[in-house]
User: Which sequence fits this backbone?
């Protein structure tokens, strides 16, 4: 059995960003248009008028201050309210492959590797832009990697599930070096016209290189315990898919985009995640006081604060539990990897931390790492 380690990491950040103030101006203009178009029904009491949003509401509800997107103009167009992305020809790189490739090359450079050194590529993300061929195989080709590649989707937990899958294959010797890529174009599946969720997501791509620890070419993070868990719930759901045509449901339906029952998610997921992390640590003989860092899924600041207190048994300070969602918003599976990538180089050899992501499914994955 070989010891796996994370030897490289990378983050692709889009050039365009949207502040809360900009988002609110666009949403409120859309709400005014909607109310004007439904004035008679509103007057008759048949429908409720659409309420305005506010930057203060967004910040207090989530801790988010801005988000990066691939297309700002489409999202902020009150007559559209979703991104406008140019279709790619079949002989062009797909959008997911393109942004994933950027993050992958950063990760490879940090690891001192090239694409030819990789024999496994996993593209782990919430919403893949096509069913087949796999985005992972496309990234494999663009990198000049060997071996094999496949896509996987466990929603917001995809990155940690991908890391466990890669780490397990390295442990057993079925692969030597793996690349787990998380291209998340969340702006495409977010309902920007819904006041309760229009501020939640942003776009990004992340990647990590995983290989045998004894072959690492520099500072790295040894992977100790990995654990994944799932429990079915409809409280976070997206009904879009290739069967829409078969069901005669090609119209613009609200349930074909991101939907969640936020209160139930808070109540049910937070205890599950906290217990999951503590159990994984206990099996490795780790104590809360051993942790230097918690890199948590970046969905909501209140959720992370709750989990941090449960795991550490006290209020964590900002350095122990870094948040990046104020800048990136929720980036689904990529969030915990952004937090890791931007807040790991300061750790000293022997320092320990936990990467954890959680979300729809329900799903939760945690990875225990030690700086070496």
Assistant:
């Amino acid at each position: 059995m070989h010891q796996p380690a994370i030897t490289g990491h990378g983050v692709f950040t889009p050039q365009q960003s949207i502040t809360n103030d900009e988002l609110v101006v666009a949403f409120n203009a859309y709400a005014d248009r909607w109310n004007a178009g439904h004035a008679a029904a509103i007057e008759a009491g048949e429908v409720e008028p659409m309420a305005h949003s506010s930057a203060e509401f967004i910040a207090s509800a989530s801790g988010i201050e801005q988000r990066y997107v691939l297309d700002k103009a489409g999202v902020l167009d009150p007559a559209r309210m979703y991104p406008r992305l140019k279709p790619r020809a079949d002989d062009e790189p797909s959008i997911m492959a393109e942004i994933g490739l950027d993050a992958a090359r950063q990760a490879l450079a940090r690891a001192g590797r090239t694409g030819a050194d990789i024999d496994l590529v996993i593209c782990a993300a919430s919403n893949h832009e096509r069913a087949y061929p796999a985005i992972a195989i496309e990234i494999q080709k663009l990198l000049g990697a060997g071996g094999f590649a496949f896509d996987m989707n466990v929603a917001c937990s995809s990155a940690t599930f991908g890391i466990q899958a890669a780490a397990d294959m390295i442990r057993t010797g079925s692969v030597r070096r793996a690349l787990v890529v998380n291209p998340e174009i969340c702006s495409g599946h977010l309902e920007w016209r819904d006041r309760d969720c229009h501020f939640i997501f942003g776009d990004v791509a992340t990647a990590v290189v995983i290989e045998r620890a004894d072959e690492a070419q520099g500072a790295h993070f040894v992977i100790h315990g990995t654990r994944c868990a799932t429990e079915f719930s409809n409280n976070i759901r997206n009904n879009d898919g290739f069967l829409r045509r078969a069901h005669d449901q090609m119209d613009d339906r609200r349930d074909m985009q991101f939907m969640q029952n936020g209160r139930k998610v808070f109540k049910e997921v937070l205890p599950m995640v906290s217990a999951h992390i503590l159990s994984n640590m206990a099996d490795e003989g780790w104590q809360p006081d051993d942790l230097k860092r918690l890199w948590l899924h970046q969905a909501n600041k209140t959720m992370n604060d709750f989990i941090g207190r449960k795991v550490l048994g006290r209020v964590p300070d900002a350095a122990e539990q870094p948040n990046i969602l104020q800048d990136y918003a929720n980036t689904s599976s990529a969030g915990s990897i952004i937090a890791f990538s931007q807040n790991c180089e300061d750790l000293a050899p022997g320092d320990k931390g936990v990467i954890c992501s959680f979300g729809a499914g329900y799903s939760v994955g945690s990875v225990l790492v030690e700086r070496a």
